[in-house]
């Protein structure tokens, strides 16, 4: 009787071990599936972030190129405006010079007219 009880107990223990081993394998498979699902889910996010980063890098390069081009154009415009301003100053200087010369010529002309009139009067009085 005791030996039959031991055999029965060992049989129950063997069955429980098999059930436990089966459940352990199922748990391992489930954990593996869960891990794979989580990794896949994270990979989708990482892949999207990577694509977004590539797009941002390309747009940043394009923006930098555009900003550099705009800076060059702005510098060219500034140089053009500066040269135009210098030309206007030169024209103003020439205009002042011309007015000064014109005033001097008028003064000389007036003086010559006065001298001519005086010399004509002196010749008539003689």
Automatic annotation (TrEMBL):
Recorded superkingdom: Eukaryota
InterPro entries for the chain: BLOC1S1 (IPR009395)
GO cellular component: BLOC-1 complex
GO BP terms, alphabetized: endosomal transport
Annotated region described as Disordered, given as residue ranges: 1-22
Recorded family membership: Belongs to the BLOC1S1 family.
Name this protein carries in UniProt: Biogenesis of lysosome-related organelles complex 1 subunit 1
């Amino acid at each position: 009787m005791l030996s039959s009880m031991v055999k029965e107990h060992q049989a129950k223990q063997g069955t429980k071990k098999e059930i436990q081993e089966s459940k352990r394998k199922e748990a391992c498979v489930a954990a593996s599936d869960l891990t794979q699902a989580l990794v896949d889910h994270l990979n989708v996010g990482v892949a999207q972030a990577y694509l977004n980063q590539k797009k941002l890098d390309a747009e940043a390069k394009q923006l930098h190129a555009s900003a550099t081009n705009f800076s060059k154009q702005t510098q060219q415009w500034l140089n053009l405006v500066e040269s135009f301003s210098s030309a206007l100053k030169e024209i103003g200087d020439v205009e002042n010079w011309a007015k000064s010369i014109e005033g001097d010529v008028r003064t000389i002309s007036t003086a010559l007219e006065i001298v001519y009139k005086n010399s004509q009067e002196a010749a008539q009085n003689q």
